[in-house]
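for ur thesis appendix - Redoxin domain-containing protein. copy paste whatever u need, i formatted it the way the template wanted (i think)
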Amino acid sequence: MNSKKHYTLLSLLLIIGLLVSCNKEKKTNNIVESKIASDEYLISGTLKNIEDSTWIFINKDNEIIDSTRIINEKFEFKGTLDEPSSFFMMVGKTKPEYFVLWAENLKMKIEGDKGNIRNVSITGSKSQNEYNILKQRTDSLELVFENVISQLQNPDPDKMTNEIRNNLIKEQNDILTKIEEINQKFILDFPNSYVSASNLNDYAASWGREKVDELHIPLSEQMKNSSYGQSIKHFLSLPEVPEVGEKFIDFELTDLDDTPLKISDNKSKYTLIEFWASWCYPCRQENPKLIKTYNQYKDQGFEIIGVSIDQRKEDWIKAIKKDSLPWKQGVDLKGFKSDIALTYGINGIPDNFLIDEEGKIIAKTLRGNQLENKLKELFKN
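the 3d part is after this line
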């Protein structure tokens, strides 16, 4: 199963591990009525039945930007934003509960109860109101999706047959398609919403240039000039995704020694461009098999260039060393927003492209025994 990047609550679970290991301390104070400047936000929260000193974290763009402890069921955050942005709020460390907050430089209030954190009440933000409308449209589907994922990840060995598994995978893909369609309709309904611009930016690689361009045109000028709109514009300026039979598109990354790494510098007969990440379980699970295949064919002219979707350099380096990956590795630490990932249409990993010595793409998305079988065929000839 590919590790896909979807802007849903479920996809945000991928970053729980980052929060559980965070030990950032912050002084706790009695919550009083605060004054804020016009370029600041103030988030005042009340979460009933929450134990004193429970941690709450703000995660923005996969990075923890603030944290505090809940005292007497209350907490407060203050900061500043260049434009409205989504925060992924995590309550607790060991078994965290979570919710999404669309923050603006305004006073916002959060009210909720332990055990139902996901459905807290948030007021004071126009973007949050718009997000709530989208959430109402997708919530029932996301709950079903989570149930399907749970069955796939924790199967009952006495009941899980290949037919049931295939049906669950089909149901999972059907639900994702419906969620994407709802998001596309929302963008058309709310062309002057930061939520719309953000979602279009997040789904860009998955939807492709034609659909993104179609949805980008109706956006308001304010949204087109936002950071999300500028990112979408950049995406639309990139080359079309190369297909099998076409020449590869060259790119430059930084390797483990902080030196430039380009595909065109490699002169092997066949080169596999392998997209992966340290946090991607299916990628890491497949590495031993990939190493075996690499060792079997490297002396015959086979090479691998690993392209990481990581955003944390230390995690990338640690994973390479732990898995003993012997081939060349490159990264730009931009995740799925990397020009390389966008150019090659990567919205799920692991994924790969196999290139011949003339630079032509001869196969893609070779998983399991498919790569070994392909190389056996190529080197036999």
